[in-house]
Each structure stands twice: as structure tokens, then as C-alpha cells.
Specification:
Radius of gyration: 20 Å
Order of helices and strands: HHHHHH
Low-confidence stretches: 158-166
Length: about 170
């Protein structure tokens, strides 16, 4: 009848071994939740500013901190990708996540440019930050989906296979 569509696993056995051996896997595992916590705090500060008109400096500073953490996770993520896949960005397994990451990075960088360059209203600047945050949430969702795929593809330990045969 119809041809069975074959899909490439997220990792080959060798890529999985390199992923598990890379110190950058741990770094990414630490930076990702730290970035998310900073994002939530920053989002709260931005919301507080829009609700009350207070806390502008704290809201803006929180976006700067979030952006610096984003740079750290992007740089270390590229190094991780090189360790695992042999190239710094756009490895086939993470191509679309990397493409969207560039948009996230561009929006956060635009915030820094506008923040330090001036000429924007306070509300306009924080709306730009919210656009960057929306892109970040979408991108984080992409990576969580890949993490879920990786866990589903994880090889079953040989001991578990032997137990199932009993």
C-alpha cells in the first residue's frame, strides 16, 4: 500500500554519547531554568510597570539581565551543538529551533539597542521586550518538544530488555 515514512532520530548513537559526555549539556541544563526564572520575574516587573506606572528601572534592568543570560545560553548552546553535531549552529536536528533562536536573539538585541540608544517611549521599549519574550516562549516550547522527543527516543537499558523477556 503506502510507503512508511521514515524519520531520522533526533540523535544517532554516537551523537547521544557525545551529548551525554559534553560538559555543555550540564551548562545548558542549568542556564535554561535560570533564564526561565529571570524571564518570569522580568515579566512580573513589566506587568507591574504597566499596571501601576512604577518600577520602570527595575523592569528595564530585568530585561537587560534576561538578555545577557540569553546571550550566555546561545553561546554555550552553539558550543554544545558543535560538541554533539560537529557544527556550531543549524545542525539538522535543531535547524528550526536555531532559526527561531536567531529571531529571539535579534529581538532581545533590538531591546538593548533601543534601551541604550534612547528615542523610545518607556511603554514602547517594554512592548519591544514583550515581543522578544513572546518569541522566547515559542522558542522555549520548541526546545521542550525536542527534549520530550529525546526522552522518548532514549535507548532502553539492556537489563530492562532482559527483564521484559521473563
Amino acid at each position: 500500500m503506502g510507503e512508511k515514512k521514515t524519520t531520522r532520530s533526533l540523535y544517532t548513537a554516537e551523537e547521544r554519547r557525545r551529548r551525554d559526555a559534553s560538559k555543555w549539556t550540564i551548562v545548558q541544563g542549568i542556564l535554561a531554568p535560570v533564564q526561565f526564572i529571570v524571564f518570569l520575574a522580568s515579566l512580573g516587573l513589566i506587568g507591574w510597570f504597566f499596571a501601576t506606572g512604577e518600577g520602570l528601572a527595575a523592569a528595564q534592568l530585568s530585561v537587560v539581565i534576561k538578555t545577557l543570560i540569553l546571550y550566555a545560553i546561545m553561546i554555550t548552546g552553539a558550543i554544545w551543538e558543535k560538541d554533539v553535531f560537529g557544527q556550531y549552529l543549524f545542525a539538522p536536528a535543531f535547524y528550526w529551533e536555531d532559526v527561531f533562536s536567531i529571531l529571539v536573539l535579534a529581538l532581545h538585541t533590538a531591546f538593548l539597542w533601543a534601551y541604550w540608544g534612547g528615542g523610545w517611549t518607556d511603554a514602547g521599549l517594554l512592548i519591544l521586550a514583550l515581543a522578544a519574550y513572546l518569541a522566547y516562549v515559542i522558542n522555549a516550547g520548541q526546545f521542550l518538544w525536542k527534549l520530550r522527543q529525546a526522552r522518548k527516543e532514549a535507548p532502553v537499558p539492556q537489563a530492562a530488555i532482559g527483564e521484559g523477556a521473563r
